[in-house]
Specification:
The complex is a heterodimer of chains A (about 325) and B (about 160). With about 325 residues, chain A is an alpha/beta fold. Chain A contains twelve helices and 14 strands. The chains are: A alpha/beta (about 325), B mainly alpha (about 160).
Chain lengths: ~325, ~160
């Protein structure tokens, strides 16, 4: 396998409360040390898209802040192309394309071209190449036709694409995308994720992406790192995560909701059933028992049942299971 | 030699960053001409007010009215320059923090120490232009001759 572009080793970050002197200058709500990252290690290789998952406060943004040089780690180190993200921050920032979650980071009174020209100059792109590069990048993200429209005249999806254009303008080797689709409708989000996949493949980029939309993570179907309270709960490919975490699941489709409730209460009397979930007229059963045993138990309720079968459990349930067991362990 | 080369590169990069901010501020300025005109008008309001006061006092027989006016104009210009130098950076920072753009600038491969200088380029230039315009306007509006200095009273 190729050398990792992003390498994070035993990274830890503790936000300490400000000293009395600093509190005269800045306002803070941190009264006790807050552990944002705890012994986080991971690697991202060229062409790989790593989805960083976790509930709010899991440490995703702090991880990105360390990589972009906005904060320093308390322990461990993060390197990009062998350069230390803290010590060589200025060089590292040249290698990173960053797309923040909020589109107000754009200059909304300025056109797409003006936005990119401004950031291109800050990124040190020579003036002779700048305008061609801007046109190419706008073409890549499908905004060339809207190049002279100001930010306020663009839809949320177009603004997200403009932020992506800004992130790739200087041809970085690493893309860091902090909830890129948070303000975009599902269809626009699908297009944006496809675009990110295409760009990552074409340019062989290492991509770190955080998202709360699990359908996008399933669509990416690449590497996943699951964080909870600053710790890595899982790191690896999405498929092995689901295979590892998912318990056999049986879906019983009942005639109606009251029938589903009745079946659920009958099943709750059996030993060996881990969880029962009623959603509309369906009952989801998590169990290691063979399906024949379930069918036998429900023998007298044949007229209430439409179908019984195994289903692929949803990623949401897998994450819930993993995060739940992690919380219990800690 | 290497140090000189590094300094030259550093200065050139700083100029590039300042140029980027200058261009974007220039577009902002010229895209809203009415706002720009109002800014200039606003700078001339005290001049017109003090000119009116000077003429009023001069009409009452006081021979120091336009000397007073000259001092006031110099004061206004000096205060404008001082306020621009003290407030522009703070205001620009506040705007960036409120708009959520500061972190984006810090993530760019820009030497952080060049940001204050770059962000001050256009406000600084505007302060100079306004100061010069104020001086020109006041010198055109004041009478060509001023009263001679009053003789000092002898203490003996």
């Amino acid at each position: 396998m190729s050398e990792p572009i992003v390498a994070i080793e035993h990274l830890g970050k503790v936000y300490e409360p400000f000293s009395r002197g600093m509190r005269l200058l800045l306002r803070t709500s941190v009264k006790e040390p807050v552990v944002a990252l705890d012994d986080v290690s991971l690697e991202v290789h060229p062409g790989q898209i790593m989805a960083v998952l976790g509930p709010n406060g899991a440490g995703k943004s702090t991880l990105f802040r360390v990589l972009t040089g906005l904060t320093t780690p308390t322990t461990g180190r993060a390197t990009i192309m062998g350069l230390d993200a803290t010590r060589d921050s200025a060089k590292v920032r040249r290698l990173i394309g960053f797309m923040p979650a909020e589109n107000r980071t754009l200059l909304l009174r300025h056109s797409c071209r003006e936005n990119l020209a401004f950031h291109g100059r800050l990124q040190g792109i020579p003036e002779a190449q700048l305008h061609d590069r801007i046109d190419e990048t706008l073409e890549t993200v499908g905004l060339y036709e809207a190049r002279d429209r100001i930010g306020f005249a663009l839809s949320s999806g177009m603004l997200a694409r403009l932020m992506l254009a800004r992130a790739i303008l200087h041809e970085p080797t690493v893309l860091i995308l902090d909830e890129p689709t948070s303000a975009v409708d599902p269809l626009g989000a699908f297009e944006l994720i496809s675009m990110i996949q295409r760009i990552a493949t074409e340019r062989n980029l290492a991509v770190l992406i955080s998202s709360h939309r699990l359908d996008e993570v399933e669509m990416l179907n690449d590497h996943v790192v699951l964080l909870n309270r600053g710790r890595v709960v899982y790191s690896g490919h999405l498929s092995s995560m689901t295979a590892q975490a998912r318990r056999p699941r049986i879906e019983i489709v009942a005639e109606n909701e009251s029938a589903a409730e009745k079946l659920s209460s009958t099943l709750s009397t059996i030993d060996g059933i881990d969880s029962l979930q009623v959603e509309g007229s369906s009952v989801f059963v998590a169990t290691d028992l063979p399906i024949d045993g379930i069918v036998q138990t429900l023998n007298g309720y044949g007229d209430l049942i439409v179908s019984i079968g195994r289903t692929a459990p949803r990623l949401r349930d897998v994450l819930g299971e993993m995060l739940g067991s992690n919380s219990e362990a800690s | 030699m290497a140090i000189a080369q590094r300094s030259f590169t550093g200065i050139r990069r700083m100029a590039q960053v300042a140029g980027a901010f200058f261009r974007i501020d220039w577009i902002d300025l010229t895209n809203y001409p009415l706002a720009l005109a109002m800014r200039f008008l606003n700078a001339f309001v005290p001049i017109v007010t003090y000119l009116f006061v000077a003429q009023l006092v001069d009409g009452g027989g006081a021979d120091v009215a336009f000397d007073y006016y000259t001092f006031v104009v110099i004061g206004i210009v000096a205060m404008g320059a001082l306020a621009a130098s003290l407030n522009s950076f703070g205001n620009a920072m506040l705007r960036l923090v409120e708009q959520g753009q500061l972190e984006m600038f810090l993530v760019e491969p820009v030497p952080w120490r060049s940001l204050p200088f770059a962000m001050m380029t256009m406000p600084g230039l505007m302060a100079v232009v306004l100061a010069v315009a104020t001086l020109v306007a006041s010198s055109l509006s004041a009478p060509a001759t001023t009263s001679p200095p009053s003789p000092r009273r002898s203490s003996s």
